[in-house]
Amino acid sequence: MNLLKNQIAYFTSGNKNNSPIIFIHGFPFDHEMWRHQVIYLQKKFFCVTYDIRGLGNSAPGDGQFTIDMFADDLEDLIDELDLVKPIICGLSMGGYIALRAVERFENKFSALILCDTKSAADNDEAKLKRAAGIKSINSDGAEKFVRDFVTGCFSPKTIKNKPEVFIEILNRSLTNNPTGLKGCLLAMAARTDTTSYLAKIKIPVLLICGEDDTLTPPDVMKSLGAQIPNSEFVLIPQAGHLTPVENPEKVNMALKKFLGRHIS
Fold first, then answer.
1. What is the rounded distance in angstroms from the CA atom of residue 178 to the CA atom of residue 79?
2. Which residues of 193-208 are buried (b: 16+ CB within 10 A; e: fewer)?
3. What DSSP designation does 192 have?
4. DSSP 112-155
5. Are strands 9-13 and 45-50 parallel, antiparallel or unpaired?
6. Is residue 91 within a helix (H) or strand (E), and if so which, with residue range?
7. Which of helix, strand or coil describes residue 104?
8. What domains sit in the chain, N to C, each tagged with a CATH number?
9. Quick check: helix, strand or coil at residue 45?
């Protein structure tokens, strides 16, 4: 594990001379959710994972986060490692960060991969749900909130057929600092809408969505992709919101095909 000056924990695998790819995890998870993708790609790519501010091994600080702060952290990581035109791959909240980063400094990236995410900002109903999550953590502690939230991210098929996958992700999520959890909820509730930039994206884009995803359903991601020039959409069977851990083989194959077409 390495640390940026702002106490962001990051991890690298593979040869630094290969094309870099940065994986940005979702909420309330950590860098380990990309384990299968790193193992699969590390021979041909320089793989970088990190824990978003407040989650995993990264410090929670005061818990006052914004998506732009997360995008700043991503830019700091790129500068720290002196990465040239990395591919960025973000899931859910990681996708919000990736989309905001592309909106701000697209010229720093060579390609974008969006997994189970959306460009729209929270509506009032979603904001109230984030607020209720913060209230729940304050009144009852983080465990119940995390258990309920993580369970909702998985396809029922995964929980039934791969209970060990669900349990591992849940247990890792339960170790997160409550201050970090609340900070991420605040950041997501206050995030800007990046939809207007979709049509301006010039780099190649891959969209991946689980067929059983109820948080960002396939029709939402297909609509997202329809607004992005030079984009591709892949539906992942036997998966909910956490496609990289629920069906890593299919996700890895989608990544291989996309990267093979667009990255030399």
1. 29
2. ebeebbeebebbbbbb
3. P
4. EEEES--SSPP-HHHHHHHHHHHHHHHHH-HHHHHHHHHHHHS-
5. antiparallel
6. strand 87-91
7. helix
8. 2-262 (3.40.50.1820)
9. strand
Q: What is the CA radius of gyration of the chain?
A: 17
**Alpha-helical regions (H) of 163-247:** 163-173, 178-189, 218-226, 243-246
Residue 154 burial class via C-beta count within 10 angstroms: exposed 0-12, middle 13-18, buried 19 and up:
buried
Residue with tokens 């989608």: 254
Q: What is the pLDDT of residues 151-208, one digit of tens each?
A: 999 999 999 999 999 999 999 999 999 999 999 999 999 999 999 999 999 999 999 9
* Contact predicate 161/18, CB 8 Å: no
Per the DSSP assignment, residues forming a β-bridge with 206 are: 113, 232
Among 120, 29, 25, residue whose Cα is nearest residue 74: 25
CB atoms within 10 A of CB 43: 11
196-240, pLDDT tens digit by residue?
999 999 999 999 999 999 999 999 999 999 999 989 999 999 999
At 264, is the pLDDT very low, low, confident or very high (cuts 50, 70, 90)?
A: low
Pairing of strands 2-3, 45-50: unpaired
6: pLDDT confidence band, cut at 50, 70 and 90?
Answer: confident
